[in-house]
Every structure is written in C-alpha cells, then in structure tokens.
C-alpha cells in the first residue's frame, strides 16, 4: 500500500478530530482551534544554548544570528492508519474530508469539480469499512494486546460514524450517497452472525463419546462455547467498548437468543428421556449456573434474559420427566420392601446394632426420597413440581403397613424381632415427617403420618398384649378387699418385672416409648379395676387405708417403669389425686380435688367421678350430686387443653 507523509498545517483536512463543519463557518474556526490544541505546534521559538530567543525562530550566539528550522510534525496518512489498524484515526480523516467536500463547498458546480476526490473518498471508505468489520468479526478470537487495541479502534470508528450519521440527519442539505452509513446496526448484526457462527462451529466439531448421544454432545458443546465466549467478553472485550454500549449484556442477549433457538428446534422433536432431561438441566441448572459465575453475575442481567425455553415447550418435557421419576421411584420403593419381605420369609432375624434390632427400610427410603426430590427440583427448577413424585410414598406406607399386619398375623419365630426393628423405622419416618425434613406435599405428609400412627399402635399392641394376658390374674385382684388386706400388688410388680425382660431389643427411643405405653396401660388397668367398685370404703379408716395403698402403689409403679425408661411421670400424679379424693372427708375439699383432677384431665367424665365417689359409701347421694355438678360447671368454664394426654377416656364405665 502506498505511503504518503504530510506536514501539519492549518488546512481543514489536517489530521485529528474536527467538529461538525456542516452547520456554519464558525464551527470551522472552532475546529482549527481544537486542532491546535490536539497536536504540537508546527514551529516553536527555541533559545540557543547561550543566547536569547530571536524573532522567527533564530538564535543569537556569540554575536551571530543562526537560523534553525524545526522539522515538521509528521501526521500519518489514511493509508498508514489503515495499515497500522488505527481505524479511529482513519475514519476521522475521511470524515474531515467529507465535511470539506460536502460541508464547506456549498455550490454544486464547485462540488462537481471535486468528483475525483469524492470517488476517492468513497473508495477509501469501502476499504476502511471492510477492515473495520473484519476486525469486529474476529472479536471473539482476541489473543493479545494488539488485537484488543485494533478492536477498540474499530469500535471508536463505529461510534464516530454513528455520530456523523446523526449530524447529517439534522442537516437539511443533500448528504453523500453513503449517508447514513448504518455502521452501528451493521456492528450489531455482525456480532449476531459471529455468535451464530461460534455456536454452529462448536456444534459441527463435536463428536459424541460412548456415554453421549449426538444431541447431547451438540448441546454440551454449544453450552461450553457460550460460557467461554461470555467470559472473554467480560474479561477482555468489555474494556474495548464504552459503557453506554453495554457490550456484556448485548453479547449475552445474542448468545441467549441463538442458544434458545437451537434448543427450541430440539424440543419440537419427540425426544428420548435422557435427551429431554438434558434440555431441562440446561434450562434450569447449567445455563443459570453459567450466568451466576462470579465473573459474570455482576455484568449480565440474567433476569432480563429469562429462560432458554418457553413454558409451552417446557411443560411436556417436565411431565415426561416427572412421570418417569414417579415410575422409577415406585420401582425403587417396591424393591426396598421386597427385600425386607424376603428376609422375613426366609426366617432371617434383623441385624443388631448395640443389642438393638434394626432395619434398613426407613434409612433407604429417606435417602432415596431426598435424592430423588432434590434431583427433580434441580432439573425442573420448581420444588412444588418436584414434590409431586412423592405421591408414591403414600402407597408405599400402605404396603408397609400391610406387610407389618402379615408379620403380626403369622407370628413367626422372627416376627417379634422384626416388629421391634420396624418400630425404629416408624420412629425415623415420623421424625422426618413431623419436622418436615422430607420435601413432601402436605397431603402426602399427613397421610403417611396417619399410617405410621396405626402401625405404631399395632406394633405396641402386638408386643404388649401377651404381657397383659399374663398380668390379667393380678389385675383382677386390684380394687378388691384382698387388695387392701393382702396387697396382691406386690405379685403384680414381680410379674411385670419378669415380663419386661422380653421387651428388650428395640432402639433406646423406641424402648422408652414402649415402656411409657406399658406404664400407662398398667395404670389404666389399675384405675379401671378400682372404679369397678368391688371394694366398699365405709368409714374414714378404710378410706385412709385405701389412700395409703394407692399412693404406695403409685410410687412403686413410677419407680419400676422409670428404671426401665418410661418418662410418663404424670401417671403417678393421677393415682395420687384419686387417692386424695378417697382420703378427704369434707365435701368442699372433695369438690376442690375433683375440680383439680378434672382441670388437669378434661376427659374425666361424670361417670368416672360417680364411680369414684361410690367407693366412699359414707358419702350421701346429694353430696355426690353436688360434687359432680361442680365438675360439670368447671369443665364448661375451662377451655379444652389440646396438650393434655388422654387417660380417662380409655377407661369405660358401665
């Protein structure tokens, strides 16, 4: 390319930036002033080494005047700027020439005399435009400072052209044929084609491995290219653009639109399950994850971009995925229960940990559900949708309950140990459901808790009923004359201690709960036999004797069951309150004690009070009626306390 040097002068086509010369001649003068400030003065007065400065650039030395001429400042020509990729300077030179030809030369005849200059200007513009957009097309291939500087210069050139287009729009005169140039629009369309080409090339170059389908390899490749290019934009290209062009979000929108268009085409086809899942992963996890990278999160408005796929395409993919997840979850749950059944059918005892029977059912199910729901939520991007797969847990619990009923019904040699292990599973399930540690829909949670409550009661009954059968002869002697004379309660305690040994083998928390249940049931049997009315307490002495016997029995029961792990201290209080009623002689005092008992245990009924008071045969019918009425009035005024534990409602009075 031909090189040409030119000396700096005050002519209108000098290098540097010139303001608009299309408006009036005053702006031309202003432009000359800007140029003087932009470049060094062409000539300066300099003082000699020993003399003083003279006029016109001469110096006086030893009485002789020596004329020194300063060399002119060399300004690069258009061709040099083009070769050095100084595109901003090149476009500025052409704009100045354009302003001179079309702004200063007003007469059409005079302009006609410059046809060759106009043609030359048009040719130069074409060469410059080609180089500017070649540079822009290589924006995402920057690998050094020189390329970054060239891109920065190209961007500035686009900006100058945009400004010149605006000036011509505001001017009423005939504009050059190349105006408006539309470089800014072409800039955007060039970047858009560049983005398309980047994703196309990545798609074409990827080959699937043994674990990937072609589609998966394509999508993964495009996603990887998108991430790498956006990081390059933020780290390098951002510095080549002015803030008002918001280049990071511009590229992000283009990549988003291009990537989205490709995924839409894929989603329109009937996909295999794994391909549909891959699309959901890119929509809800991988792509948002890229935009949340530390380098990008503050530069790109991810919310404004939205999702990669619209709802009408996402819904069928989600339905397909969730349906498959439900089927797979059901199969997994069935297999867990099937394995448990097989071990029991084969006569195997549950494994033991710390001398406690344990079963893997609860742990396996909880881990499975957590993993499935967490994975589903990540893939579909919605917790409520992900939770829909847990509807299978309701059916599993029902099947688990049916299996337990079969274990109890058949009562095999290994049934009791399995039920003890199952209690631990029930406890684990209940803990995660009550504390809402499992991501379940509320209706599923409540349904499962109901099933677990039934299972716990059934398991307790299976383990405790044989004990009550052994203790029945001792229960029958409670509340009788022999109870006060011979005190058969000691024999009851001896039998209870013996039977408790057979209840060992549950986990500590389950054993504690089982002991509490037996503690309550023995206490209920005690009160039930007492209220049956076989014993008649005709005088104060017998009533005092009954009081002492009941309080001693209450203390013995409490001591025994507490030593075995029961935490039901309130059962001792019930027996002592009943004993107090039998001891008291004044009706007002009896009324207060009944009110105290009824307030603490609102399930205390008139029938219970009547049966208790009938033991005191020296109490008149009228007094009994007054005491009962006091209880009724108290219960009406007292709001129900839902935290109180049921006791008297379990004792039927005939």
From TrEMBL:
Superkingdom of the source species: Eukaryota
Any one GO CC term of the record: exocyst
InterPro entries given in the database record: EXOC3/Sec6, EXOC3/Sec6_C
Alphabetical GO biological process terms: exocyst localization; exocytosis
Disordered: region residues: 1-34, 165-185
Comp. bias (Polar residues): 13-30, 165-178
Molecular function GO labels: SNARE binding
Family (UniProt): Belongs to the SEC6 family.
Name used for this protein in its record: Exocyst complex component Sec6
